[in-house]
Amino acid sequence: MSPLPVWSSTPLRRLLVVLLASLVAMAATVTGAAAAPVADPAVAASAAGAATPDLLRYDVTLRADADGSRWTGHERVSFRNASGRPLREVYVRLWGNGEDGCGTAGAPSPVTVSRVRGGAPGPLTVGCTALRIALPEPLAQGGRASVAFDVSVTVPERNARFGREGAFRFLGNALPVLAVHDAEGWHLDPYVATGESFYSLAGDFRVRLDHPSALKVPATGRTRTLPGAPGRTVTLSVADRVRDFAWAAGPFRTATQTSPGGVLVRSYWAPDTPAEGVRLNRRDGVAAVDRFGKEFGRYPYGEIDLVMTAGFGGGMEYPGLVLLGASEEGGPVVHEVAHQWWYGVVGNDQYAAPWLDESFAQYANARFHGWQDFDCSEIDWPSEEAELTRSMAYWSEHRDEYHVVYMVGPCVLARLEAVLGADAMAGMLRRYVRDHRYGVSTTADFKRAAQAATDDDLGPFWDEYRVR
Question: Rounded CA gap, 321 and 327, in Å?
Fold first, then answer.
């Protein structure tokens, strides 16, 4: 939420509002009429556009088949309406259908929802990634409601964040989550395979995963296992203030250690993963979670799972869990761990402003490794249209320019550090994380935070480096 204009928070205006409210209340007493509340127009407008539904609670129970390829069960989502406008509907995002859309008769969508309770479902839209559920009655500001449904998840035959590699299953963006409504309306952006479309508010997850005991199941949150039916195990996860929930399944090898800073780091890897790659990822993952905790604020999730295979392309971040390809040289573990702060703790609309998490994670990664893979001596823009703050709508059509977010973005942040000074930059980032912890930030929010750290006008800097 953006700060209120200065005029709306002055002592004089507050005094006038209080006096006017008192006069209205006195008139109502005399006439016997009910006094209407007096609202500050700026406050009312801000409340009307607040991001909602919020204070989310997901309760999920899923059961796996013999090899973790199919999961079926139930999901219930309770939520509050944070907006000043009545909430008449919610949208469920089925991001797992992004690659396959609505499927075919012989190959249906990987994620299906049925038996909806708590509202009336409409048809699937946006390539079968969005399901509208009309609420039985408008939900007023501050009110709570819930929807529930049966869910079926079938892991696709591809090596991807939602896919499989040999005997191993990756279930990233497989669990349905609620879309966000704010001053711009409902965010129902399309899925993109290059980059991320995902935008969700932080919520609490309570997830029960029932699976064959031969499968290890790393998952978002603090996990523990219980014996299930014969030959089966139940993995229970408690995850608070996270934006998504992901898990994996397979006959992983495992190791557990606690970082010097007190974070539990669980490592899972396929047997054919290069041993040196596993060692390097574990070493750097432990070091990164502690270092970024000092630089950006304490790691909030208690546990982080590093899931590694030889063939996974690159890496993918989720709260408390990262998927990694591991070679003899290691993998992108530092970048993915940095995402625990940049998109995890400090949220952003990853479709509208991907630089706010990817460039920041790369900046943290570059600082960790000493900028050995970056040459920031000259900023090279691939075209006149390329801007750091472009959305995925632009990058999806200009994939050959998408490297700007990963290579130019961290260099722009490095140059901002040179302008502010290292200590001022570090302090600004800590305050920025503190002020937006578990919330959502925008480019305008970051520019305000940076400007507050210096007396110099940063306008020319933003123009020069296309931060608009």
Answer: 19
Torsion of CA 38, 43, 45, 49, to 10 degrees: -130
Residue 346 lies in a domain: no
* Pair 362, 222 in one domain: no
Q: Is-contact 326 267, C-beta < 8 A?
A: no
256-287 burial string, b = 16+ CB within 10 Å, else e? eeebeeebbbbbbbbeebbeebbebbbebbbb
Pair type for strands 70-80 and 303-309: unpaired
Alpha carbon separation from 419 to 137, 220, 366, 374 (Å, rounded): 53, 38, 18, 19
Kindly state the tokens that stand for 39.
């609202």
Asked whether residue 3 carries a pLDDT value surpassing 50, the answer given is no
Say if residues 369 and 320 touch (Cβ distance below 8 Å). no
DSSP one-letter code for 66 = T
Question: How does pLDDT run across 302-342, given as a tens digit for each residue?
Answer: 999 999 999 999 999 999 999 999 999 999 999 999 999 99
DSSP 375-399: --SS---SSSS--TT--HHHHHH-G
Residues 277 and 142 in one domain: no
In sequence order, the 6+-apart residues with CB closer than 8 A to the CB of 34 are 28
Q: Do residues 74 and 206 both lie within one domain?
A: yes
- 234 and 162 part of one domain: yes
User: Could you read off the pLDDT of 166-183 as tens digits, one per residue?
Assistant: 999 999 999 999 999 999
* pLDDT > 70? residue 83: yes
Kindly report the pTM of this predicted structure.
0.89
User: Is residue 64 located within the same domain as residue 27?
Assistant: no
Give the domain range for residue 152. Answer: 55-246
**76's tokens:** 């219930």
Does the residue 349 lie in any domain?
no
Residue 232 in tokens: 């089966």
What whole-number distance in Å separates Cα of residue 26 and Cα of residue 29? 5
C-alpha to C-alpha distance for 234 and 213, rounded to whole angstroms:
8
Q: Which of 289, 286, 303 is nearest to 222 (CA)?
A: 303
Residues 457 and 367 in one domain: yes
Domain annotation covers residue 345: no
User: What CATH number does residue 171 fall under?
Assistant: 2.60.40.1730
- Domain termination residue (choose one: 33, 48, 63): 48
Burial class of 121 by CB neighbour count within 10 A (0 to 12, 13 to 18, 19+): middle
Q: How far is 329 from 383, CA to CA, in rounded Å? A: 33
